[in-house]
Design brief:
Helix content is 20%, strand content 23%. It is globular. It starts with 7 loop residues before the first strand and ends in a 14-residue tail after the last strand. It is α+β, with helices and mostly antiparallel strands.
Length: 84
């Protein structure tokens, strides 16, 4: 059986909307509202349970990776995709 290398994903967030402290408090969260088609497809089709996540805080001072997480569920369609 061929062992595959663990994949890692860079997940961008705005600290004012959701930060690493929020994830620590919540334990897990959904990632919805992604409008970029390529990013949406990666979330829906390619991210698998057990993959690593680098949580990247954008528009922060300084911007950068603020924590590590793990994908706990394979991708699924965004329930908010058709909301304006």
């Amino acid at each position: 059986m061929k062992k595959t290398a663990k994949r890692f994903w860079l997940m961008k967030c705005e600290p004012s909307a959701y930060a690493i402290d929020d994830l620590e408090r919540d334990g897990r969260t959904g990632w919805e509202g992604v409008r970029n088609f390529q990013a949406r497809n990666f979330l829906r089709d390619d991210m698998k349970r057990g993959d690593g996540v680098l949580l990247f805080a954008s528009n922060a001072d300084p911007s950068g990776v603020t924590g590590l997480a793990e994908v706990c569920r394979s991708g699924y369609p965004d329930p908010f995709a058709f909301q304006k």
